[in-house]
Write a structure and sequence with these properties.
With 304 residues, the chain is of the alpha+beta class. Strand 4 and strand 5 form a beta hairpin. Helix content is 37%, strand content 16%. Helix 1 packs across helix 2.
């Protein structure tokens, strides 16, 4: 098993309808960790599969900006449906109405409607996708923000004993295990009783008993998981032995006002209190990314 750090990055959606479809595919493939299957046109078959299976929630990852003239005579009924959707943000102007929504809202609309009013964002409410790598425990907190759109790595379908996962489980380094570093790897041989005792008693030892307990737990977890797979268990059966420390990846998409509300609850830099230390790391990184990319303004020292 291996320890890694949590991380956050912005996953930009490139301009254009086709690029939006590719963005949806990229986000969705995190469920099975099948990003290696992406080709230049694989999105066509992938989206068709989603639609045929009526599995349309992942379509929310695709952001659509529309600029619709106030006096338009085309697609009037469709325009008013979008204006009245609770999943659309509309800024009304004198000449144009600026709509921010997602592809799941418009999947049944005529494609000509989307192409007619498609635009790059100008006066629109901006929408941003973040790729977050964190522990399962922290992901449980993140997905409580239900107004966002999510796609997450699935322990039902990801078989971590396979070579594509390097045949090992990965765990997030918790805030309190300061002795651990990115890439630290351990096996069953490292937790043999005599070796643990030797290390604990060694003057050079810098690992606390608590961290040794964490290492031992995760090594045993990996060993039992792999044994269950060998015995014929499926990934969704073997996952019952996996802990909250397991690494997971998820894509999280929302508008800037939604991100600002998230930060007000999850980042002390934005005034949040009582936040779990591992969530603070995630929240603060999201804040800095949004500030550095000019999506939000930097807050003052007092959090206002």
């Amino acid at each position: 098993m291996k320890f890694i750090n949590s991380s956050v990055k912005i996953e930009p959606q490139k301009d254009g309808l086709e690029e939006m479809f590719k963005h949806i595919e990229l986000c969705c493939r995190v469920s099975y960790k099948s990003e290696d299957k992406i080709t230049e046109d694989s999105y066509k078959k992938f989206l068709k599969m989603l639609m045929n299976n009526k599995h349309t929630t992942p379509l929310e990852q695709g952001t659509i900006y529309l600029t619709i003239p106030v006096d338009t005579k085309e697609f009037v009924d469709e325009a008013f449906k979008v204006y009245n959707s609770k999943y659309a943000e509309v800024i009304y102007g004198k000449e144009f109405n600026y709509v921010t929504t997602n592809y799941n809202v418009l999947k049944d609309f005529p494609l000509e409607f989307i192409k007619k009013f498609w635009s790059t964002p100008t006066e629109h409410v901006k929408r941003v996708t973040m790729k977050i790598v964190c522990s399962r425990a922290i992901s449980h907190e993140i997905v409580r923000h239900r107004i966002f759109s999510y796609i997450q790595e699935s322990t039902r379908y990801c078989n971590y004993s396979k070579g594509k996962f390097d045949s090992e489980l990965k765990f997030i380094i918790p805030f309190w295990a300061k002795e651990l570093q990115e890439g630290d790897s351990f096996s069953v041989q490292d937790i043999e009783p005599d070796k643990i005792i030797q290390k604990l008693l060694s003057p050079e030892n810098k690992i606390s008993p608590q961290t040794f307990a964490l290492i031992s737990s995760h090594v045993c977890e990996e060993n039992v998981y792999k044994e269950l797979i060998k015995l014929g268990s499926t990934a969704q059966e073997a996952r019952d032995v996996l802990s909250n420390g397991l690494k997971t990846e998820l894509y999280m998409t929302g508008t800037i006002p939604q991100w600002e509300h998230f930060l007000s609850l999850r980042s002390p830099l934005c005034g949040a209190t009582g936040v779990h230390p591992d969530m603070i790391k995630i929240g603060n990184e999201i804040y800095h990314l949004l500030v550095d990319n000019n999506y939000i303004k930097e807050v003052s020292k007092n959090g206002k």
